[in-house]
Amino acid sequence: MNKEINLGMSAKVQIEENECWWGIATTIGCQSPLSIKNEGFSRDIRCENYSNQSVPLLVSNKGRYIWSDKAFKCTINGGLLNFEIEAPLNVVNAGTTLREAFLAASKAHFPPSGKIPDLSLIAKPQWNTWIELTYNQNQNDILAYARYIGENGFPTGGVIMVDDTWQYGYGIWEFDPRRFSDPKKMCDELHSLGYKVMLWVCPFVSMDSPGYREMAFGMKDAGVRCEKGGLINDIDGEPVAAKWWNGRSASIDFSSTRGIAWFSRQLSSLKEQYGVDGWKLDAGDTESYKANWVTHGSFSPSEMCEAYAKIGLQFPLNEYRACFKMGGQPLVQRLCDKGHSWTDLQQLIPDMISCGLLGHPFVCPDMIGGGNWTAFTEAASNPFEPELFVRSAQAHALSPMMQFSAAPWRMLKGEYLDAVRDAAWLRMKFAQYIVDLAKECAISGEPMLRNMEYNYPGHGWENVKDQFMMGEKLLVAPQIIKGAKERVVILPPGEWISDEGKVYCGPCEQIIQTPLSRLPYFELSSHNS
Question: Which domains does the chain possess?
Answer without folding.
Answer: 3-109 (2.60.40.1760), 120-202+260-434 (3.20.20.80), 449-528 (2.60.40.1180)
